[in-house]
Amino acid sequence: xxxxxxxxxxxxxxxxxxxxxxxxxxxxxxxxxxxxxxxxxxxxxxxxxxxxxxxxxxxxxxxxxxxxxxxxxxxxxxxxxxxxxxxxxxxxxxxxxxxxxxxxxxxxxxxxxxxxxxxxxxxxxxxxxxxxxxxxxxxxxxxxxxxxxxxxxxxxxxxxxxxxxxxxxxxxxxxxxxxxxxxxxxxxxxxxxxxxxxxxxxxxxxxxxxxxxxxxxxxxxxxxxxxxxxxxxxxxxxxxxxxxxxxxxxxxxxxxxxxxxxxxxxxxxxxxxxxxxxxxxxxxxxxxxxxxxxxxxxxxxx
Length: 302
Description:
The chain is an alpha+beta fold. Strands 12-17-13-14-15-16 form a 6-stranded antiparallel β-sheet. Strands 2, 3, 4, 5 and 6 form a 5-stranded mixed β-sheet that branches. The protein starts with a strand and ends in a 16-residue tail after the last strand.
C-alpha cells in the first residue's frame, strides 16, 4: 500500500514541521530521521516553519532531473578538487544545502552531509515503498491563482502576485502559500485588471514578435541557476516542455525564489512564475556586443 508523504509536527499550531509518513496511528518516519512519539499529522496551512532538511528532501523527491545532470559538483567558489556534493535533481543545490558550481567535481572526498540525507531518504523509501507525493508547484502559474500569508487562516483574503516586483498588487507582505478558493483582495483585483489590460495591449504583441524573431545562432547557450536570469533571456526548465521568454525578473535577498513575468510561445500568453533561485536552467542570452561572452549572474537584491 502506498503511503502519502505528509506534514508532521509535535505542536498543532506552530513549531517545526517535517515531511514523512505515518505507519498506523502512532509510528512515524520523517525524511530527516527526526524521531519523536509525539509527531502527528498537521494541515498544509499552519504557522509552522518547515525543517530545512525535509524541504531539501521534498525537492529531491519531486523535481525531475535536468538534462545531462551531473552526479557530483563542487561547492560554488571551491576548486574542482574540493569535496564532491550530490546535487538535488534540477538544482545547483546540494543535498546538504550548499550552493553548487555548474562544473563536475573531481575530488574523491564526498560531502558527509549529502551522504547523510541520501541515507535517510533511502531508508524512507525502503520502509514506505511507493510514496504518494504532494502536488508539484507549476513552473508558471495560471491567471486565477491567489496567494496568502504563511499560516493564515481560512477566512484570509487571497492576493495576486506581481511577477515584475515580487510583491502583491495591493502592497501586502509577500504571501507564499497558494490560497485556492479564498476571497480575492479587492485592491489586488482592481490593480491586476489594469496591469492585465496593459499586458494584453502592449506587452504581449511586443514579446510575441521578439520570440518569433528568436535566432539561436545569435545567442549564447549556457546552464546556470535562476538567479542569473535577466529580461530578454530564454530558458528551459526540467519538467516543462515549454520555452520561457523572460519579460521581467525580481529578486529579493531573503526570498529563496525568483519572481518572473514570462511569455509562453506554445500557449501564446504572458504568465507569472516563481522559480527556486538555485534551480538549474538551460539559458539562452544574446551575445554581448562583439563577443560571445555571457554576462555574469546578478547579485541578490535587497
